[in-house]
Design goal:
Blueprint: E1 2-6, E2 12-15, E3 20-25, H1 28-42, E4 49-53, E5 56-58, H2 60-63, E6 64-67, H3 78-95, H4 97-115, H5 130-136, H6 148-163, E7 167-171, H7 179-192, E8 195-200, E9 210-215, E10 221-223
Helix pairs in contact: 3-5, 3-6, 6-7
């Protein structure tokens, strides 16, 4: 059980498997203040919002990702690629001892040969860094061929696999998705057990696969 609560209000969102949590905030001031508090938590600062997993409080910055701009998600920003390269380096060290030795020898031999092509006295670093090799080869996550929903799902999977994010909080995501696209995204999240929290500024027709919470224009909490 994952729960997001505000300690100074009656807001308590319980996220269940097989359901998408939707928080509709019709009051602009409340919307702004809640997002500001979540941003503070993303930066590692304290606020009145508490995230708990199985009734134990956990760090929001490590377990919840707030996406304010769903149109500009990037699977290949510097933070993601740095984490990706490190995860590959860790796996390479654990699994490819002999292959790495053979590659190092072939690499150094080739490096010596091509340096002899210059009449100048050359020196070079004989230490081969796999992370730098990945970077120089421009290894990145392929997200150029899919639809918007497929790329959105890839982003969720990337952040879940690399950073172990438990909750993906999207702001006004429904404004950019058709019903069919929303169906597809929900189905993928249910199948892979990824938890979405949709924070919306306007209400939309209710769905049986959603749990809806509404803070109306007067700041009153309504549960569906």
């Amino acid at each position: 059980m994952i729960c997001l609560a505000h300690s100074k209000s009656n807001l308590k969102i319980e996220m269940a498997e097989g359901k998408i949590s939707v928080l509709v905030i019709e009051n602009p001031t409340v919307m702004r203040e809640l997002l500001q508090e979540l941003e503070e938590q993303q930066q590692g600062n304290s606020s009145e919002i508490v995230l708990s997993i199985d009734y134990e409080p956990v760090s929001i910055s490590k377990n919840l990702l707030l996406i304010n701009d769903p149109l500009n998600i990037d699977c290949n920003d510097r933070k993601i690629l740095t984490k990706l390269y490190q995860s590959i380096v860790d796996e390479e060290k654990a699994q490819y001892h002999l292959e790495k030795d053979n590659f190092d020898k072939a690499y150094l031999e080739y490096l010596r040969e091509i340096c002899l092509l210059s009449p100048l006295p050359l020196i070079y670093d004989e230490r081969l860094n796999v992370g730098e090799l990945l970077k120089s080869a421009h290894v990145m996550i392929d997200h150029t061929t899919g639809s918007y929903v497929e790329n959105l799902w890839n982003f969720i999977k990337v952040m879940s696999d690399l950073f172990h994010i438990k909750v993906f909080a999207f702001v006004n995501l429904k404004s950019f998705l058709s019903k069919q696209e929303l169906d597809l995204l929900y189905m993928q999240c249910f199948y892979e057990q990824k938890q979405l929290l949709l924070i919306e500024s306007h209400d939309t027709p209710s769905r049986t696969d959603e749990i809806k919470y509404i803070i109306d224009a007067d700041g009153c909490m309504i549960y569906y």
